[in-house]
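Weekly structure sync, notes
Attendees: PL (lead), two postdocs, one rotation student
Agenda item 3: pending single-chain targets
PL asked that the sequence for the first pending target be pasted directly into the notes so everyone works from the same version. It is reproduced below exactly as submitted, 215 residues in total.
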Amino acid sequence: MSATLTRRRSVAVLASLATTAVAPAWAAQQSWPAAPGDMNLGNSRARVHVVEYMSLTCGHCAQFNAEVFPAFKAKYIDTGQVFYTARELLTAPQQLAVAGVLMARCNGGTRYFPIIDQVLRSQSRWQGGNIKAIFLDIAKANGLSESQFEACLVDETALRALEGRVRYATGTDKVNSTPTFFVNGVKLASDRVPDLADLDAAIARALKPKPGGGR
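Predicted structure, written out during the meeting:
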């Protein structure tokens, strides 16, 4: 995202939700540094750290979320074997991706992961337009009033923070597509959406002792 997020763009977020129709589409020892605004799940002292870059308008991200993430979470995150971090990128239409992120981070992001899941799963209902109504339903299901939802979508501080996270993604981590995964800092091949077997293999490689006995 090259342009600065401004008040004009924050107003555009609200407008785009109503008018756009879209086709479906480790603790101190960790080698992968934390980034501003990281959203995490699981055991921060796990030996494996998986970072996912996603966009809420990315059809392949929705596919991973629906078909792979539940089993991955049950096998690795919920059992304390993996520390998982979600990071955001923006894909077209960007204003919808922005709106979803701002809603997920509303109220300090206390409902971040449920909202992310619900927005991704709602993609198939976006073709008819009036996406704002869909997002508002998600907001209300997660304890936000309509006024809180509206306020979050035009929160300039949150918009600037998002711009910084996207700049970090593209500038520091050199990510330009979604979904993109790193396992202990090693980028996975991005030619297709990884399945659970792909993640199993990457995690096994990350756990393999390095020459000299280190990890």
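Discussion points:
- The chain is about 45% helix and 10% strand.
- Confidence is low (pLDDT under 50) at residues 1-6, 23-29.
Action: rotation student to compare against the earlier draft before next sync.
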